[in-house]
C-alpha cells in the first residue's frame, strides 16, 4: 500500500496544481464575464458576444 501511495503522490500533486491553476484562472476571468453581461444588457442590441467569436 505504501508503494502505491508513493507512486501516485506525484501524479495527485500535479493534478491538484493543475486544478488550482484552472480554478484561479476562472476566478480571475469571472469579473470580465460580469462586465460582458452588463454591457450587453445596457446596449439592448443582439450583438454577438465573446463566446461566438
From TrEMBL:
GO terms for biological process: protoporphyrinogen IX biosynthetic process. One of its GO terms (molecular function) is metal ion binding. Coiled coil: none annotated. Its cofactor is heme b. The chain crosses the membrane at residues 12-30. InterPro entries: HemJ-like. Pathway: Porphyrin-containing compound metabolism; protoporphyrin-IX biosynthesis; protoporphyrin-IX from protoporphyrinogen-IX: step 1/1. The keyword Oxidoreductase applies. Keywords: Cell membrane, Heme, Iron, Membrane, Metal-binding, Oxidoreductase, Transmembrane, Transmembrane helix. GO terms for cellular component: plasma membrane. It is found in: Cell membrane. It catalyses: protoporphyrinogen IX + 3 A = protoporphyrin IX + 3 AH2. It is a multi-pass membrane protein. Belongs to the HemJ family. This is Protoporphyrinogen IX oxidase. It comes from Frigidibacter mobilis. The lineage of its organism: Bacteria, Pseudomonadati, Pseudomonadota, Alphaproteobacteria, Rhodobacterales.
Amino acid at each position: 500500500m505504501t508503494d502505491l501511495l508513493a507512486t501516485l503522490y506525484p501524479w495527485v500533486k500535479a493534478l491538484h496544481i493543475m486544478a488550482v491553476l484552472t480554478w484561479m484562472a476562472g476566478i480571475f476571468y469571472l469579473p470580465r464575464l460580469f462586465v460582458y453581461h452588463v454591457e450587453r444588457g445596457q446596449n439592448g442590441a443582439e450583438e454577438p458576444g465573446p463566446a461566438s467569436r
